[in-house]
Amino acid sequence: MLLLQQVVLALTPTPTAALSPASGGEFWDQWGDMIMTCGYRAGTVLIMLTGAWVASGFVRRLIRRAAERTKLEMTVAKFLANLAKWAILALAVISSLGVLGVQTASFAAVLAAMGLAIALGFQSSLSNLAAGVMLLVFRPFKFGDMVVIAGQTGRINEIDLFMTELDTPDGRRVVVPNGQIVGSPIENITHHPRRRVDVTIGIDYRADLDTTRRLLEQAAREVPGALPDPPPRVVLSTLNSSSVDWVVQVWAPREQFIDVRQATIRAAKRAVEAGGLEIPFPQMVVHLRSPASSEAA
Length: 297
What we know:
This protein has helices at residues 2-11, 24-69, 74-99, 104-121, 123-138, 178-182, 209-221, 257-274, 291-296; strands spanning 146-149, 152-159, 163-167, 173-177, 186-188, 194-203, 233-239, 244-253. By secondary structure, it is an alpha+beta fold.
């Protein structure tokens, strides 16, 4: 309402004399300046808004084409293009109000205050928006990647400006705000084309170390689906409480990781059984002392 009053006051000339019935010539003398001024200002505003609309559409298309050439994420490209479009239109509207005689300084101050209030009210949403732009620009993961983000493991289904959707291996849809993703470590499980399979197996202490290594190395070389390069390895890991622990390491294509892991476990167990070795159960040795022996001690 205040804005409308300012426009009306700006377009209405200051009366210099009382109005009285007049002929056509006298009417033009009294109101001609106002009609010319209003027409000039209205025409100027119309040209400015039309030019701004055309320019905003051109800039929007230009940004999207540049984003396609630079292979920028399409979601970010659309966001930047729309932001540039509405910024140009907003500047055109404010400039048009100045042409109409409205005090744009006070109007800009009101807009700034409203913007500050909105920013404070939507602080968390704006934080997620900024994080979403960072994710889409730096792209630590993409659609279809298996990741661990904000404590959740799943395959990326969609990356939005405010949140990211992922599907867990057990068929659940999890929606994570982008602010939580950027503020925590990001693990991209399927980033590289190959992954290493580590299978730990415990062997009885009585087994010969060289024999155990030979059997496990032979089993690792025969795992179906494993990559020949890098070659498989067998590592003596730990002298555990009830077993000597070995780690069989083979490399697999990321699409076949689970299958190769299952095959490695089967091959290691069969090799140990074929070589006459034992996989001991966890055990504890308990020494019982009689009361007589305790007193003698």
